[in-house]
Specification:
By secondary structure, the protein is of the alpha+beta class. It is built from 8 helices and 15 strands. Helix content is 30%, strand content 29%. Bound molecules: N-(5'-phosphopyridoxyl)-D-alanine. It is an enzyme of class 2 (transferase).
């Protein structure tokens, strides 16, 4: 495995970050998770747009131009000889001193890790996941804006811990008002009487790129789609529920908090959307 580290391509053993790096000390940085399908970077422009927007919002200067970043991604994939896989692109504030002042960090660090990825089995896509809602609340725009894909993932890690304790793969996080926000690392959709719903991002969700792809697919396939807030009750009584994410793609949910969703397996619209999603990435 070859890792991109500030312009160099180094081995896994040599890919080291300083203990004074503010990404490590404070979660001060941003990242993207990107898929490679058939040797192509899926939605590269969209991921880089989100990365550079996140950087601007937190006043982090990425030392590479957009084109240079794209080139670095391509070269990292090439050196790892990957046709299908996953890229983790990290930009941290870089090494500074122990204080939290970013002025003490002269240069951001850019790291690109590319590797194989197998997150869920084909059975999981067909049968659906069991999920639970958790007590951890999503930070909303008056705290850290959920549009910023920051390295500060403690909130999400706490959701993942609750998912682990419940023995499920992904959990559902609400916002402080009790509206459904998203999973620990996935957006959420529900379907009721043929209409597809997903929470608007202001409720407390990342502007997911897979989410946007599904919204486009719904328009193309003629499924009505509404971005509106909904509650756990709406999830329990939905005909279908699914999560979307770069790693998870489109994964059905068959049970939430002990309530069986629809027929207790991936429903017809979810199955159709997954099939069409896979066609678009090929
Ligand atoms: N997840 N919500 C959160 C909190 C996320 O971390 C992610 C990405 C998503 C889905 O966004 P997208 O479709 O752009 O991946 C939603 C990880 C990093 C991943 O799936 O790779």
């Amino acid at each position: 495995q070859v890792i991109y580290l500030n312009g160099d391509y180094v081995t896994k053993e040599d890919a080291k970050v300083s203990v004074f790096d503010h990404g490590f000390l404070y979660g001060d940085g941003i990242f993207e998770g990107i898929r490679i399908y058939n040797g192509n970077i899926f939605k590269c422009k969209e991921h880089l747009n989100r990365l550079y927007d996140s950087a601007k919002s937190i006043m982090l200067n990425i030392p590479l131009s957009y084109g240079e970043m794209e080139q670095a991604l391509v070269e990292t994939i090439r050196r790892n000889e990957l046709r299908d896989g996953y890229i983790r692109l990290v930009v941290s504030r870089g090494p500074g001193n122990l204080g939290l002042d970013p002025l003490r960090c002269p240069a951001a660090w850019v790291i690109i890790i590319a590797e194989q990825l197998a997150i869920y089995s084909e059975e999981a896509y067909r049968d659906g996941l069991v999920s639970v809602s958790v007590s951890q609340r999503r930070n909303i725009p008056d705290a850290l804006n959920p549009k910023i894909k920051s390295l500060n993932y403690l909130n999400n890690i706490l959701v993942k811990i609750q998912a682990n304790l419940a023995g499920v793969g992904e959990a559902i996080m609400l916002n402080a008002q009790g509206y459904v926000a998203e999973g620990s690392s996935d957006n959420i959709f529900i379907i009721k009487r043929g209409v597809v719903y997903t929470p608007p991002c202001y409720v407390g969700a990342l502007e997911g790129i897979t989410r946007a792809t599904i919204i486009e697919l719904c328009a193309k396939l003629g499924y009505a789609l509404k971005e509106e807030p909904f509650t756990l009750h709406d999830v329990y009584v939905a005909d279908e529920v699914f999560f979307t994410g770069t790693a998870a793609e489109v994964i059905a949910v068959r049970e939430v908090d002990g309530r069986t969703i629809g027929e207790g397996k991936a429903g017809p619209i979810t199955t159709h959307l997954l099939a069409e999603f896979r066609k678009t990435v090929d």
